[in-house]
Amino acid sequence: MNPNNFKVFTLDVGILAAMAGIPPKSLVQGAHLFNEYKGAFVENYVAQQLKSDKKIDLYYWTSKGKRAELDFLCEIQGSIHPLEAKADISPKSKSLLSYDTQFNPPVLFRTTLLNLKKDGKICNIPLYAVHNFPEIMDDYDR
Which of 10, 12, 18, 134 is at 20 to 30 A from 56, Cα to Cα? Predict the structure, then answer.
């Protein structure tokens, strides 16, 4: 762990939008301005849910050469669980697969706008259900 590498999240995505000077109308209408920042909003939302609701310590991972970056590594009951947060409905998981190649965890988690779905090692968690992240892991193992 390198304490010089960190991400900063706000307590609320509304605060993030206000700090970035993004008008509420842009967020509701999906204007171009929101499209530029949607990855940041999704990451912030996931961090907000996991930290404030579940009290999970959050870390992130970058590959050597910084070609891949995984949004969250969550330590739960002594195990590390990778979680990638995506804003799209057709997610590509290059960073998640890069992490898998290097560390080979039993399950890879991704949160998107898609429904709950298992695809090989990847478990997709809908954004609206990310607050159930630790419990969904138990269901995935069944």
Answer: 18
